[in-house]
Amino acid sequence: MKSAYTWGGIVAIVFASVVGDVLLARAMKQVGDVHALWRRAGLWTVVSRILGNPNFFLGLTAMAVAFFSLLFSLSWGDVSLVAPAAASLTFIGNAFAAKVFLHEKVDRRRWIAATLVAAGVALLAG
Amino acid sequence: MTFRKYLVLAGVTVFAAAGDSMLSHGMKQTGNISLHHLPSVILAVRNPWVAVGILLLLAFFASYMNSLSWADLTYVLPATSLGYVLLALVAKFALHENVSPMRWLGIALISGGVGFVAGGPALTEHEHPHEGKSPSFDSAQDKLPEKDVARSGAPAAEVVSGGVQQ
Fold it and tell me: How many whole angstroms separate alpha carbon A81 and alpha carbon B52?
């Protein structure tokens, strides 16, 4: 039963993290390069553009769900299982989601990188 | 990629690693949280380790948002995964914990992944019809063998120099 709770928590973390990452990445692409924007229009413009973006708040909400799922899961399961499993699966989930929803060019180089990092993170738990 | 951008990626890496480890340490002190006692999650913030961990994660979030404004999600995530390696090295050399061969293999895989993604372009160039720039210019250039670059460059140079002579 504890194991079911733990894996349910891991799935919740991964799903919420991927949704959050994709929405935040989309929001920041809509805002544009903050270095350039800051130089051109000042800090206030950067802050107001970020805070005025609906995707930013949706992403933030998804990240908050992921954060509280992590807190719960850490209290139910072992940190050496929850953290690496969630992080590892999030890398793979993000590669798929970024390709489909953000139209990023996920070429062979990036697939290999995401897979190596996901495998490495999973092994660190061992 | 400028030095400042590498610095932002380093910030994402270090703040995430430090924040996560402090949060983990604090939550272990707080103990189990039950679904029936939800307010205890909020009360966990009173633990100083949890509080500092949250502050560090806020710094991580600011650096992360910054990096996502000029780089792809599939570039930023693997590039900043060195934080896991950092945690393992801190465990080995600062806390004198035993790092098993499997963990060293994990560190090697993550480092390899970071090397792979860092060698490529940071941002996908989406097609802009008015700019006349080909999509994914950087990655296309990456895949072109050196001799092809030289070959494609040579005739252009001849045309230019020929034009000047006339």
Answer: 24
